[in-house]
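QA checklist item 7 of 12: single-chain prediction sanity check.
[x] sequence parsed
[x] length recorded as 228
[x] structure emitted
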Amino acid sequence: MSQFVPISPETLAEIIREGQALDPPALMRIPPEYHSSILPIRIVFWQRLRMLHQLMKKHAPQARNCLDFGGGGGVFSPTLAGSFPEVTLLDLNAGEAAVVKDRYKLNNLELVQQDATQCDLGSGRFDLVVAADVLEHFRDVDTALTPIREWMAPGGVLVTSLPTETFTYEMLRLVFRTKKPEDHYHTAAEVEGMIERQGFERIERRYAPLPLPLFPLFYISAWRKVER
């Protein structure tokens, strides 16, 4: 599995400009935290993806294909495409991800621009699924988890990043003058409970930004699909 590939703030700004120049313009799918002028915010957001990459290397080293579920603007795509023979990015709008694909020449990356709850990617297809800060955006998380489970191969691995939405998280939002997205419907703990009820077994959990569960802002977890 290849090394983690970060994207500089300058390059992200160029990708966003290229996306806006498309006809029609791409939706803004690259979260501003990845290229924030506030260094601690930028560090933490890239740290989450680094930790997901570490969990993949540890728990799915033989995976041949990967689904980036709700992959947004494709900031994780250079890393994933360098790590697996086949990568699929699924998102409602993949305009910016298409710019990333072209810029980095990611020929093994398939872009699927579709509603996750209304598409069929094939039963038992994926050895690994990445859901990086996306599941909390579903009011009914089972509408996302049900197809994810269906698309995963037996014994497949799911890796997730989820915001804790704790008091600490809220205080830091005040400090850095950021707002909670209106569609953050669930905390990390709530979503992880739903994942377990859907038939996944957690095999490891890590915390960001600190390695211990001291005021965590994100849960970074690896899950194994359990056969029923």
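[x] summary fact logged: The chain is about 35% helix and 25% strand.
[ ] second reviewer sign-off
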